[in-house]
Amino acid sequence: MIPAELIQSTARVLMDKAAIEIPQDYLDGLQRAAETEDGDLSSFVLRAMLENYEAAKEDRRAMCGDTGVPRWFVKLGNEAQVEGGMVALEAALRRATAEATNSVPLRPNRVHPLWRTDHDNNVGIGAPEIEYGFEPATPEYGGAWIDLITVHKGGLFGTDYRMLFPSDGIEGIKRFYLDSLMAFGKRGLACQPAIIGIGLGGSKDICMTLGKRASTLRIVGSRNSDPKIAQMEDEFKELGNSIGMGAMGFVGKNMVIDCNIEVGYCHTGGMPMSVHAFCLSSRRAVARIHADGRVEHRTDPDWFTPYQRRETVDWPAHQEAAE
Q: In sequence order, which ranges of the chain are alpha helices (DSSP H)?
């Protein structure tokens, strides 16, 4: 049984880490970009951001004044139990979000869409978002654990959607991808360079979810388990960096730190696609809470496991274990 109080205290730590400590995989990618960038203004921005990250960590201050909109991804092992149930888990995450808004501090970005009501704590109707995943027990880790993942993603722009059709094919996907990156750069709709996530398939809402998760829940350098999609990811990263834009849309050659693609089965007549830019301040933090009270921090969300990408009706590994 995992205490709700432990969930809340761990979540508070994660909120602090996400706002201040850039994940090492993204930092490495950004440093590689800085080493190869030859655009004057783009190089200046990259150097300034790297210096800002060091200052933020040293001073324990948020790395960017706009701390985005905090959200949670929760993955539960199949045998996990929470003291007080799932309502207690959600209450713990909402409390941690409100507390961190005051203590980190985070900018209170959440308001009512019509009345502009602001509780000054990033909590309200539907906020923060909490998305769930589940995972079978394994011999290595068992199943009595909960992964808490917080992502502070920009909440205004850097996202686009289009309903493509099967006949558009890969070339149509490339066109929309490049259209989106050009709009992000020219109109200031995203802070580049960024991790770009592409969602292909699903219904419209799932397509958007796939793209957002691809941009925020995969580390730089990871590749889709489907070799053909992995090849597309390499190609799309190179393609995105060939359009002549760099940091913050200035002239340069490092607009995309990495490109991640996730897919879902869709209606036979369509091919929905979404494109998401994470942020120059790539803010995420992860911890696994075990039933015995241990808390393990890491930076890889490890969200897209074979189970999350399963295609079969039943999960073969789970079925074998049951037998």
A: 4-20, 24-36, 40-59, 85-103, 169-186, 204-216, 227-240, 316-322
DSSP string, 68-108: -EEEEEEEEETT--BTTHHHHHHHHHHHHHHHHHHHTT---
Give the separation between CA 289 and CA 76, rounded to whole angstroms: 10
For the cut 70, the answer to whether the pLDDT of residue 319 exceeds it is no
Cis-peptide, bond into residue 70, ω within 30° of zero: no
pLDDT of res. 21: 92
Q: In what order do the strands lie in the sheet with 159-164?
A: 159-164, 271-277, 194-201, 256-264
At 1-49, the pLDDT tens digits run 999 999 999 999 999 999 999 899 999 999 999 999 998 999 999 999 9
Closest to 109 in 3D by CA, of 96, 119, 100:
119
C-alpha to C-alpha distance for 174 and 158, rounded to whole angstroms: 17
- Which pLDDT score is estimated for 229? 98
Number of helices (H), then strands (E), in the chain: 8, 9
Supply φ then ψ for residue 17, to 5 degrees.
Answer: -60, -45
The pLDDT tens digits of the residues spanning 182-193 come to 999 888 888 889
- The residue among 303, 312, 296 whose CA lies nearest residue 76 is 303
Contact 215, 26 (CB under 8 A): no
Of 247, 187, 257, 169, residue with least CA distance to 215: 257
Instruction: Give the pair of three-digit tokens for residue 150.
Output: 């917080």
